[in-house]
């Protein structure tokens, strides 16, 4: 009886539920909305919010009912339950898009009904509702659903008021974050008038470091919006304060956005002020700040690229009269140094206040003539003296790098310019700082600071040595091995100290000379004037094993990642500064470091040019070819991009090594072989038809028999491109086509015979060979596949005949001798026992294309 009564109760509940559902179905969309919008059940009101868009679509044809739904949305926005309000706010962007699509019928729907809800929820007391409204606001701005006037008059003032001092900490932080995200969307004018003053004020908020951290994290975006003038006048002083904040998280955020701030600043400010500030972050007491600074170091150095890396890219080669790439940075020491900036006053730290004072030099407009190519300057100095006959074959004269001539009057002017900048006081201060820190050298953080100061001291000493070279008597600079003018000896001394004429040095001799240099001379060879020397020294130190212990275990990988950008900034004339670092990274024990270099070696080769690439990158490239698969894949993905930059003779040597890519650490790594097939397609244009036939053809045929179908289908395209390449040589083409017939058309495996049909289809579709050659060598064996016992082969044959051959006028005209055989084969396929073969032989489906047809059979040929 109990079971019976339970069954009766269950039946009654089911009947009530059915009555409930039937009653809802009888209601209109607006009736259901009115029924549940005032329900005491929170879940019902949430469901109302979720179904608002469906309700609007149901009544979209009636303008009056659409307005009624929007009015009920305004009523639902007053709900006391936060989850209902949050659910409503999630639907606002979708409803706004609907209103935009139906704008003619409800033109003011968004600005009158929806926007006020978004603005009101921005200051809601519930955290979930506020965050949902902020996300909805960003979506509305990205989709351009808000009028610019509404944003400026309604949204921006509310956000600025939320950052007032009397606002709560959470609200202030959230409002500042949304302001920073909105700045790129609203533009420069609105940002400068409404957001910039409050942003500068929040950067100095002494009570809440969370607000300062948000400002620091978004500082670069704000600088890029307002432009260089406002950045240098208003934002940079705040940025200096944030970089010296007592909270390490704020300083870390500054280090992460340093590149964006530098990009928005002028070259003078970047060199004179930001470089010193960045050095202070590199020597920060906090390991996390130093880690972020080193990760951004390469990016910051890349911002120095610009006019200095593009101007004066050619200089005259005195040996041949031809022009060679060169940067204006070759005139090391020619440009006057700028005044140093005391960063301690700006909040950048006392230890690095004057580190870069001697390194920060750049070419002004008045000095630009000095950095111009030699051939463009007026020649006012007397002609060079003739070299005595007995000195013509002197080894120094014969093998030395040509040096530019410098006007003696220019030399005197340089002495006057450089003489006042002797930085004796700066070296003394740095030595005192190092002595004070040495008792605490056991602390890793202190040791890192000592390393930074030592590098700065070394750079200062090198600069003073360069000045002494300018100030030393001319008699002391005389060379017993030549009779050149003193100005030429001065140029040779500048060149010996690391000038950019390193490009024309013979590679073998440069290796010998490098090995014979002392430690001091090797340090001097790292000198350049494109970026502050202290920054380059810190970048080169990223390969130091001690950095991995005191800063970041992944610091070498960050160095490798940014090295192409640094090389582009310095220019190929300063490659000698990075060469040792690159070789160190290429032999790093971590395969991730080598993998990073492998993926970017083609970009570096493009920067350095063919001569430096052949001398310094090719050996490293060869070592990567024998590395782990994780490293080799980086080389393989850009194999064509690298080899096309090499000389033809060097490039041809790699024909013997391409077969090594067929061997992998893991035989299941089929994507490696698929990438090889794709690269071989590109490599065909780099080699002659004979080389393609002798070396690339066997690789292609080997890949065509791969176990994985995806590799085989890519290889079939490679075969068709080889046919195109060999079409210029009839003997090679006939030999290759005969080999295809033997290996594929007469193959014992049905997949090989199917591959032959697909290669024939590709050859015609891509016009890889003439129709006459196809009819003579490929069409007869292709038609023999009509009697193949495997239906998949006959299906692809039917597609090839119907969709490819019969689309050409040549095969349907009486001129072609194969027309009768072609028609006979097609009739036999139309009467085939397999329905798929009969279908593709009878009709030409308009929706079926070559790629779709090919891949449709891939799954069955794995």
TrEMBL record:
Gene Ontology molecular function terms on file: protein phosphatase regulator activity
Region: Disordered, residue numbers: 315-335, 356-386, 475-529
Keyword NADP: no
GO CC entries: cytoplasm
Family matches, as InterPro entries: 2AA_helical, ARM-like, ARM-type_fold, HEAT_type_2, PP2A_Regulatory_Subunit_A
Pfam families: VPS15-like_hel
HEAT repeat ranges, renumbered to this chain: 155-194, 235-273, 778-801
Biased composition (Polar residues): 479-488
Record keywords, A-Z: Phosphoprotein, Repeat
Occurrences of domain Phosphatase 2A Regulatory Subunit A helical (ranges): 49-302
Function: Regulatory subunit of serine/threonine-protein phosphatase 4. May play a role in regulation of cell division in renal glomeruli. The PPP4C-PPP4R1 PP4 complex may play a role in dephosphorylation and regulation of HDAC3. Plays a role in the inhibition of TNF-induced NF-kappa-B activation by regulating the dephosphorylation of TRAF2.
UniProt subunit comment: Serine/threonine-protein phosphatase 4 (PP4) occurs in different assemblies of the catalytic and one or more regulatory subunits. Component of the PP4 complex PPP4C-PPP4R1. Interacts with HDAC3.
The protein's name: Serine/threonine-protein phosphatase 4 regulatory subunit 1
Species the sequence originates in: Carassius auratus (Goldfish)
């Amino acid at each position: 009886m109990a079971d019976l009564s339970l069954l009766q109760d269950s039946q009654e509940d089911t009947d009530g539920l059915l009555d409930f559902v039937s009653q809802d179905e009888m209601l209109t969309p607006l009736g259901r909305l009115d029924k549940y919008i005032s329900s005491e059940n929170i879940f019902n009101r949430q469901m109302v919010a979720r179904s608002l868009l469906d309700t609007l679509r149901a009544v979209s044809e009636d303008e009056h009912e659409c307005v009624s739904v929007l009015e009920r949305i305004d009523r639902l926005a007053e709900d006391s339950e936060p989850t209902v309000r949050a659910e409503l706010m999630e639907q606002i962007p979708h409803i706004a898009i609907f209103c935009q699509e139906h704008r003619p019928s409800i033109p003011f729907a968004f600005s009158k009904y929806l926007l006020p809800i978004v603005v009101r929820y921005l200051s809601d007391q519930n955290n979930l509702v506020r965050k949902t409204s902020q996300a909805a606001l960003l979506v509305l701005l990205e989709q351009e659903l808000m009028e610019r006037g509404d944003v400026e008059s309604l949204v921006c003032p509310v956000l600025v008021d939320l950052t007032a001092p009397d606002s709560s900490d959470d609200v202030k932080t959230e409002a500042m974050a949304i302001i920073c995200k909105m700045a790129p969307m609203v533009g420069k004018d609105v940002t400068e008038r409404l957001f910039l003053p409050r942003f500068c004020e929040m950067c100095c908020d002494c009570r809440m470091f969370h607000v300062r951290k948000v400002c620091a994290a978004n500082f670069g975006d704000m600088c890029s919006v307002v432009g260089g003038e406002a950045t240098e006048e208003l934002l940079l002083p705040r940025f200096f304060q944030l970089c010296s904040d007592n909270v390490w998280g704020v300083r870390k955020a500054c280090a992460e956005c340093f590149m964006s701030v530098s990009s928005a600043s002028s070259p003078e400010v970047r060199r004179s002020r930001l470089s010193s500030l960045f050095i202070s972050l590199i020597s920060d007491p906090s390991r996390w700040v130093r880690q972020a600074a080193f990760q951004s170091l390469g990016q910051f150095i890349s911002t120095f690229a610009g006019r200095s890396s593009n101007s004066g890219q050619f200089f005259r080669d005195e040996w041949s009269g031809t022009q060679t790439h060169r940067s204006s940075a070759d005139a090391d020491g020619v440009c006057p140094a700028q005044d140093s900036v005391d960063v301690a006053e700006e909040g950048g730290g006392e230890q690095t206040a004057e580190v870069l004072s001697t390194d920060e030099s750049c070419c002004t407009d008045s000095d630009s003539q000095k950095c111009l190519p030699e051939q463009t300057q007026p020649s006012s100095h007397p002609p060079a003296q003739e070299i005595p006959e007995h000195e013509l074959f002197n080894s120094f004269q014969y093998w030395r790098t040509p040096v530019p001539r410098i006007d003696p009057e220019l030399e005197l002017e340089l002495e006057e310019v450089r003489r006042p900048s002797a930085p004796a006081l700066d070296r003394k201060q740095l030595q005192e700082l190092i002595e004070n820190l040495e008792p605490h050298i056991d602390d890793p953080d202190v040791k890192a600071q000592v390393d930074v100061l030592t590098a700065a001291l070394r750079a200062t000493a090198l600069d003073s040595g360069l000045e002494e070279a300018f100030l030393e008597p001319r008699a002391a600079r005389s060379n017993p091995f030549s009779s050149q003018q003193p100005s030429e000896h001065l140029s040779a001394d500048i060149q010996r100290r690391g000038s950019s004429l390193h490009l024309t040095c013979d590679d073998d001799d440069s290796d010998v000379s490098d090995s014979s240099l002392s430690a001091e001379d090797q340090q001097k060879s790292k000198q350049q004037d494109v970026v502050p020397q202290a920054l380059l020294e810190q970048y080169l130190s990223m390969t130091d094993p001690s950095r991995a212990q005191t800063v970041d275990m992944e610091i070498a990988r960050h160095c490798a990642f940014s090295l192409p950008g640094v090389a582009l900034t310095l220019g190929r004339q300063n490659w000698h500064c990075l060469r040792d670092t690159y070789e160190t990274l290429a032999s790093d024990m971590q395969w991730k470091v080598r993998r990073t270099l492998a993926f970017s070696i083609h970009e570096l080769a493009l920067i350095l040019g063919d001569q430096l690439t052949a001398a310094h990158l090719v050996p490293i490239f060869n070592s990567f070819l024998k590395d782990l698969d994780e490293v080799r894949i980086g080389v393989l993905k850009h194999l064509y991009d690298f080899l096309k930059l090499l000389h033809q003779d060097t490039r041809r040597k790699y024909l013997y090594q391409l077969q090594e890519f067929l061997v992998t650490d893991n035989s299941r790594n089929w994507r490696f072989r698929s990438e090889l097939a794709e690269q071989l397609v590109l490599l065909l244009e780099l080699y002659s038809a004979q080389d393609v036939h002798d070396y690339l053809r066997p690789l292609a045929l080997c890949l065509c028999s791969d176990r994985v179908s995806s590799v085989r289908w890519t290889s079939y395209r490679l075969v068709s491109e080889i046919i195109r390449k060999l079409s210029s040589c009839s003997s090679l083409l006939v030999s290759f086509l005969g080999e295809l017939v033997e290996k594929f058309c007469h193959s014992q495996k049905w997949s090989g015979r199917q591959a032959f049909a697909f290669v024939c289809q590709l050859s015609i579709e891509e016009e890889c060979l003439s129709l006459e050659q196809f009819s003579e060598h490929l069409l007869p064996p292709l038609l023999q596949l009509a009697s193949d016992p495997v239906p998949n082969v006959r299906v692809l044959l039917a597609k090839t005949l119907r969709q490819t051959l019969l689309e050409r006028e040549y095969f349907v005209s009486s001129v072609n001798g194969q027309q009768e055989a072609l028609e006979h084969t097609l009739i036999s396929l139309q009467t085939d026992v397999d329905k798929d073969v009969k279908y593709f032989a009878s009709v030409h489906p308009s929706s079926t294309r070559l790629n779709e047809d090919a891949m449709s059979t891939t799954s069955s040929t794995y």
